[in-house]
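By way of example, what follows is a protein record of this kind.
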Amino acid sequence: MSRTPDGSVLAVVVDAPGQHRLVPHEPVPPAPGEALVRVYASGVCGSDREVYRGTRPEGFVRYPLTPGHEWSGTVAEVGAGVPGELVGRKVVGEGFRGCQVCERCHMGDTTLCTAGYDETGFTRPGAMAPTLTLPARLLHVLPDDADLTAAALLEPAACVAAATLAAAPRPGERVAVVGAGTLGLIAVQLVAASSPAELYVVEPRRERAELAREFGATAVVEAAEGAEGRCDLVLEAAGAPGSARAAVDLARRGGRVVLTGIPGPGATGLDPAALVTGRLTLHTVFGAPPAAWAHAVRAFEAGLLDLAALVTHELPLSAFPQAVELVGSGDPKAGKVLLRP
């Protein structure tokens, strides 16, 4: 556990783009309806890099901030109105804090809450700290023997689950996944569970291609050439400038495409005429609503997701800037990076 010389435990605080501190951490006692969780591990992803570099879109971050929206831990204390049986249980938790009263929240679309964007690790204190206090309704309880290192990846798994629920893969279909980063490799595993006839993965990095094959890919190609117009379903999980266009090119006429990666500047556009004349169904994913979280957790409990294999680095909180650089380095040997308090 990261500590100051006097023994105080530490948390990461990003004061402004490019400025961070390690500060003494004081747990926040849970109010009614809340739970206090001892954080086991917190994942670092591209959106955390955006927070640190100041490239996250306006309105989707609030400084100063303790980041950390991907995490696992154990409930240490609960507030009034929360079942005491939760104490001691291993958990993960949803990030989006919907208002629970608007139409979108009542429909289960908490990531689209009309009260405005509010998410752990971006507008509320996150898990790059020894403890995290949050509404208990956001928790998903895990089995007692759950691997908390692997469970720290259930947030990206829930985002991919949202994509697969939207796509509704069916046995015997030809499916492609564009990108074999963390999201893409989770997508390969979830799609493989639906028994596709063929499962293509588009990924130029050899190390990631080997994992994709282990997880069920029937073919891994460096580019989309050769499979254009063949796939019933395409899941885009790269967020690269040309990946959305590549996903659409892979889909057959009448096929389905789901975009999960958020592209940066310079992304190439989609041709509306091609979408219409190809009669393509296009879905997009932003975050994970409760149903997607439940789907991911059940798949994890059933042994359908090998998330531990995606973790390549476990670092102390004091290595926060190095962890952010690893995530953005492009190193094919750098997969999921975890910070441990």
In short: The mean pLDDT is 93. The chain has two domains: 10-153+307-340, 158-284. Residues 10-153+307-340 form a domain with the Quinone Oxidoreductase; Chain A, domain 1 fold (CATH 3.90.180.10). Residues 154-167 form the longest helix (14 residues).
